[in-house]
Amino acid sequence: SGSSDDDSSSKDPVKVGIIVSETGVFSTQAKDFQNGFNAAIEHLTDGTGEVDGHKIEVMVGDDTGDAAVGTAKAKEFLGQGATILAGTTDSAVAVAVAEQAVQNNAMFIGGTAGTTAFVGMDKKVFGTAGSSPAGQMIVPKILGDDLKGKTLVTVDQDYAFGQTMAKAYKAQLEPLGVKVVSYLLPVSTSDFTPTMLKVEKDAPDFITTTWAGKGYNQLLGSLDSQGLLDDATFFKPLLLKSDWAPVGEALGDSVDNSTFYLSYFAGATGNEADEALQAYSKANDHAIEYDDAVGWHAGAMVVRAIQEGGTDTEAMAEALQGHSFEGPAGEVIIRAEDNQVTVPQFTVRLVEKDGEWGVEILDEFTAKELEPPVVNALKQ
Amino acid sequence: MDTVLVLAFTGLGIGSLYFLLSSGLSLVFGLMNVLSLAHAAFLTVCAYASWLVVRETNGEDPTLGRLLLAIVLATLVGGLIALVTELVLLRPLYSRDHFDIVLVTLGLGFVLTALISGIWGHEERIIPLPDSLTSTTSIFGAPITNDRLMIIAVAVAVFLAIMLFLRHTRHGLIVRAGVENRDMVRALGIDVRHSFTLVFVLGGLLAGAGGALSGVYLRAISPATGEAFLIFAFIVLIIGGLGSVPGAFVAALGIGLIQQFANYYINGGAGDLLAVMLMALTVLVRPQGLFGREGRAV
Amino acid sequence: MTPREPSVLRTEGLTFRAGGAKIVEDVSLTVPPGEFLGIIGPNGAGKTTLLNLLTGTVRTTAGTVWLGDTDVTRMAPHRRARLGLARTFQTSYLLLGLTVLENVRLMAQTRGVRRMGLLRTLTSTDETLDAAHAALERVGLGGAATLQAGALSHGDRRKLELAIVVAAEAPFVLLDEPMAGVNSEDVHDLTELIRRLHVDTGATFLMVEHHLDVVLGLADRVAVMHKGELLAVDLPDRVTADERVQTAYVGELL
Amino acid sequence: MSRHTMVRVGGVAVLLVVLACVPFFSFTTGGFLPYEINSPGSLQVLALVLVTAALAVSFDIVFGYTGLNSFGHALFFTLGGYGFAMTLAHTELGFGAAIGIGLVASAVGGVLVNGVALRVAGLSFAMVTLAFAEVVAIGIGRNYWGTGGEEGLTVPYRSMPEQLVGVVNTRNIYWVALATLVLVVAVALWATSTRLGRIWQAIRENELRVNVMGVNTYLAKLVSASLSAFLAGICGIAYVIVLGGGVPHMAGLMMSLSLIVMVVIGGRGRIWGAALGAAVYVLLEQRLPELASSEGVKNLPEVVRIPLSEPQLLFGVVFIALIFFLPGGIAGLFSQRRTPVGS
Amino acid sequence: MTEHLLELSDVHASIGVSHILQGVSFDVPAGDVTVIIGRNGVGKTTTLRAVLGLVERTGEIRYDGRRIDAMETSRIVREGIAYVPEDRDVFADLTVAENLALAERKGRPHRYDLVHDLFPELESRAKQRAGTLSGGQQQMVSLARGLLNESPLLLIDEPTKGLAPKVVSEVVKALELIKGTATVLMVEQNIAAARRLADHVVIMAEGRVVAQHPAAVLHDEATIREALGVGTTQGGH
Ligand SMILES: Nc1ncnc2c1ncn2[C@@H]1O[C@H](COP(=O)(O)OP(=O)(O)OP(=O)(O)O)[C@@H](O)[C@H]1O
Ligand SMILES: Nc1ncnc2c1ncn2[C@@H]1O[C@H](COP(=O)(O)OP(=O)(O)OP(=O)(O)O)[C@@H](O)[C@H]1O
Ligand SMILES: [Mg+2]
Ligand SMILES: [Mg+2]
User: Fold this and answer.
1) Which end of chain D has less Cβ packing within 10 Å, N or C?
2) Does the CB atom of residue C253 touch ligand 1 within 6 A?
3) Could you tell me which Pfam families the record lists for this protein (chain C) (predicted)?
4) pTM above 0.90, yes or no
5) What is the predicted ipTM?
């Protein structure tokens, strides 16, 4: 990365490589992430795109959901002198890109990827989504008090994310006296009837799932049609808005006594960032999703890193550790010990109004309340 | 007892779906000796077709009538794509190595699947079902969802129809002979082209029905819908015996049942691995499959 | 594995059944080294099947096959071939996508090569090449060496089958209707070729053929098969004189 | 040495030198590659191209040369790559041992899987190999056996030789990829030019004929398939080195099927054809998204935009066109050695 | 009714890049048996296949006065031409009965009596898969398919090949019977059989017709030897 003194800007620019799945399975999330990111940069630099004289030069690459393409993109950007890489929803790509950043002394700020791999991975690696298991800290709060002797049934996909979730529920809830029964089923499961037969025998008080993508509709449908939700409380995280209606419909009448939680939706807090994000999105004709906030967090972290660290990645990373800031969903905390990023969450109900499904806030939980214990501290 | 019955019916349900998905493959393979790698893509396209029909005819309030209409139209779409494929892509290649046809279907599979994701994206699309299908019927006291019963009934009907077609028309004979020696069939005064087209279109219709019904079964579809079943269709074909429709029927139901019971009594997911193991065992012990004929003549 | 030179070829109670039908039934046959045995019999008598049983391309139901002192009944076809059993097929069975020369050369290189020899690279100056060319010359296909086998006419394919057997330099040669489809003038030439091969190599020959004059001209003895059974094995003129052979096989001569 | 051979050997030598020197050149390729040809981004893409070309060559041995329709080649690629990655990620055995384990895994897997699958022929063989490959793909997806699931399995960079870590060392990774290709091509060229290689070709034509010539055709096929599997294992290891970890798509159905596409595009049964087909394929796969997301394309009507943003669509169309109009693939343009003949 | 049921004039045929028939012209008189002889590889089979449109061909081919050289094979056959191919070409996977059933042409009587009379084997083996038949039995199936319909013109390629002597004479007798009702164009290597059946002889060499003779020529050793004998061993291509 050569410097050019005679440039109009007095200081070196900072190159940020954004890697997202513009094509492939996660293409909607890619747009959201970018929108949130750009909104944050615009808002936090007052539209200049400069921080203390450092111009933020953003390069965007499509990883197509393929780790090989993502890695090549990462090398391309690093080779061009990028000091920060950010983005992507696909865990396989995100981990591979983060690895490249680490090897090359660059900073990495993750996107919506559900992986836990970033926590404690390296000083310069940060998540933004407050991903699992941090996201699950909200669960005991949903379940309420006096959990002794209660039973929770979890149904998840049998792959890394689902397996992590199943473990997390056990670790978190069994000390509170909850009996946790976990079912891990193949991602390709298309018929949940046999599992439901077993769940019925467990006589659960609570049922939850993080099932995403193919099959969740079926899962919810059979929970309802087998009558399991008559006696048990159902809760689950909410993701894309386009899922709200199908989730609501699949649950039938049971939707009214089910609880959902999510990290952001437009207008969740009405704070400055929230307003700014909404304004920016409106101007750009973009419909806000939960992961617009994730992009915002990444943008805010980039701005903060440059403010404090200039172009020095060590200093950038240090500036983020232990830092907290106000995002569209409320205060975000970056823990110094393991770079755990924790975000606020909301519990909500799904309600249908005039054929449109929306959410009604039940409760808000600050990041502080939701911080998970340190499991994988950074090696100093 | 209830559990066993429910498991048996869900097993038969998924087995019937496997049959619907593999019957077209089996028919086309058995008669034309073409392993259509585009079959999975046909399924997907037809699943989307049924979704479009449901959506366009106001999916807000799904009724059984609309759904049936969607299934019928999707089936026809399957036949239509197959027709075009046969006329444009396959017909010019019959005089060539059979494998070239397999390759063309592979390419076509790429194209169709990519087209679907290009147009409608990768997200899942929901197929809303009427209550009459999502509610259950009690069979010997076990609650069975009606959509399963419908799929089982369709599978049995399709099986019988295929057997009738093979027994009572000359087309099966002509195509089998045509695969061996197309010139000789022509030299007997028979225009083989019609029969080939007909059989391939039948395969397409079956893919259409299969695609639409897998939408019903899964309640949601995505560009990967067809591909996800391909592996099971293959397993069914190998175990049942390549090209034997009764073999595919028995193997499909068998695999469906075994899968459900294994998933319940061993653990979720054991069924998939067990199915592959059964296939390996079949290959070792009886390479021609349950109903396959031993080695073709040399 | 021992034979790779003429020794006694013997079967005892050789039987093959398929689909409930007796196709070859209890055939016991002894062919002394170097003999030329003609095999005749009506269509479907089991002659080709007998050859298939000898080469192992069909699995024996009962009985035994010996090459010299070696019981080869359960041996795979390729192992029997390595013992020196070479054959032609009734309908040509060739590597149609390869050249005529490569068809023969493959046989030449397979013969006698030790396992490791398989890893030697082929060069254009290879002894197998000369052997292959020589074999092609012998059957009169010298000019067709570079053609693709698939482009040969029917009769020429029969000659290529013979060339492969020539290149095998095998002590046991099984010929299945070598003259079928060969034009009548070439029949004389090929008959002479086979006679010379037999004399030159001293190999044991078994030949199934419907051209009676060819069989009678070449064979030391003639075996007659009928409905899977061995009716008789005898000198050529005695066989043709046999009443049963006359009615079941020869019929009225044209 | 004949003149013809000398020209060929000379040509290959020049090509090798040029390829080896790529990291020292610095020019742009008009959008084919990102930035200068020796920038890390370009070298990375080129390394992927080279490794995939090697993989396609290994596949061509079994598919093009021996005529066995293997639909599960990705399995052996995965065994090598994951064997290597898992050893590094879960043990302290070190880099050398990891390579050894990767090689053994693909070799043993090759013999066992093909040993079973070769009991059936033709399209059944295709389906059986595919099913076996799917089991492994499923297992990896579900994070069985410590495979890391759909996140892949990152190789801890501290366990890799220093020379292979970091963007500055991308050129070394490029050379590893080039060496892999050279090795695989050399083995493939040698193997197919032996008598055994000729036997493979003959088996493709008519197995029974070869069998009665005295060849144990089952064994010959098994050797072909296993050698091919072993070479795929080598490519798997190189791929993991290039990517810095195992990724689940290595095992996927798409990988096996796209190998078929690559080899057919390049020309079945021609070593350099397979390599070329793979190169074209990977280059397009890597670079088309760039084109699709460029401003110029974004504003185009859908009929143009969709195909460009879905590379599979283009491959499919090109592939079909090739089968129709150029059955010998790209290599078929330059030689008529394998014109199919109806019988 | 024309005097010549089949007329070929200047017929050329190619397979791939090989130009195999290089201007074949001859006529097949109605009601008679015409036999083509010639060395292996001169194009006899290709000539029959050209008539049927089974190879790429140019030139003029008339059947019963009508041009058939642009017609699709199955059309030509339905005009009333039956074909018995050289390589038997039975459908190995189908049974004997199915093989025969495929040959049945609509609107014509099917002479199962004749066929079963000639080859009783086929009746008893109706359910056997044709691929498992012996070589000669397959030849019988192939002949039977050609004889099943009452076709005005029969194209027969080496009918006696691979048949036991007794069956050869039976086939010859059968063809003699048919001679009255149909026109036959056949390739035959068996000179004895040819002598019995032929009314006319066409001699081919190197993709051309070199002579057309009355049947008597078959008794002329010298001409026959010249047509079939010695000289270059390699056929034209
Ligand atoms: N699977 C089977 N089921 C019933 N019969 C069979 C089967 N396989 C072979 N045959 C019969 O076995 C007999 C022997 O056939 P083979 O080919 O040995 O005869 P061949 O003597 O060589 O006759 P040709 O002279 O016609 O070639 C034939 O009658 C054939 O129909
Ligand atoms: N597929 C092909 N490709 C190229 N040339 C071919 C092909 N088939 C046949 N030929 C050539 O065409 C010529 C004529 O073949 P044809 O089969 O008509 O000969 P024929 O006179 O019937 O010979 P035979 O008496 O051996 O049956 C032969 O020289 C042959 O080499
Ligand atoms: Mg025989
Ligand atoms: Mg001929």
Assistant:
1) N
2) no
3) ABC_tran (PF00005)
4) no
5) 0.82
